[in-house]
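WARN retry 2 of 3 for item q-0093 after timeout on previous attempt; input resubmitted unchanged.
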Amino acid sequence: MAYVREFGFDGIDIDWEYPGDATCIQQANTTSNVTVTPKQDISNFHLLMGELRAAIDAEPVPWADKLLLSMAAPSAGQWADPLQLAEIISFVGGHVDFINIMTYDYHGAWEKVVDANAPLPQVETTLSDFVDQYAVPAYKLNVGIGFYGHSWNVNLTGTDKKAIVPIGYPAVNGTAPVTFAQVVTLLAKEGSMSYYDEKEQVPTMWTAPDADGISLWVGYDNPKSIKAKLQVAKKRRMGGAMIWSLDQDDLTGASPLLTAVAHEILGL
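OK item q-0093 returned
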């Protein structure tokens, strides 16, 4: 608490990835030489959030000056089973001011076909899950906005150079995530193409094929798709938005993604 006050932060955000997840726990046990079970891991998370809430409430400051407490939460469909997400949200939901939902990473390099990082229909399903299934008040929820995309190599040998390479196209292999700044650079290259999927409300792009017919395909977010997500958030009277992460924006181009968020939420 002293550290937060010393450096003028507005609050504390806990990004525990992920309470009760067996793979994460195994990695932690290996590196720390401490054995923790999934049940103990979830209990530790509960205890931490409760202690933070108590410490914030105990500060002798006016209510308006109280620190905020928030937590990151995974999109329900992706992590619900191993996380016992309903139990976690039920226990800690009362402790936090906001839950920052990671409404991205629905698809990525681990899949065998290309797809969008955060299709709007899947984002809407996640938001509905938190309100309807986990009984979280909408005003406590922040929709997550990714300033990056997921990418794959695709083989375009024999295809029309002007043909759309749609979501669901077979991938040769998955590749590393691509920041929005990198997307801007890729789109500037000769032969690169882009397409906005109106059904999924996301942009996609692909580079000109190399000598072997291989192209880099990226599903990402741009100002238009971000506006669509935030309009849903406003319609549902949610708390706001969470961004991962600011440094991935096009900083040479007046930060168009951050500008889109500010314009849609704050009217700036």
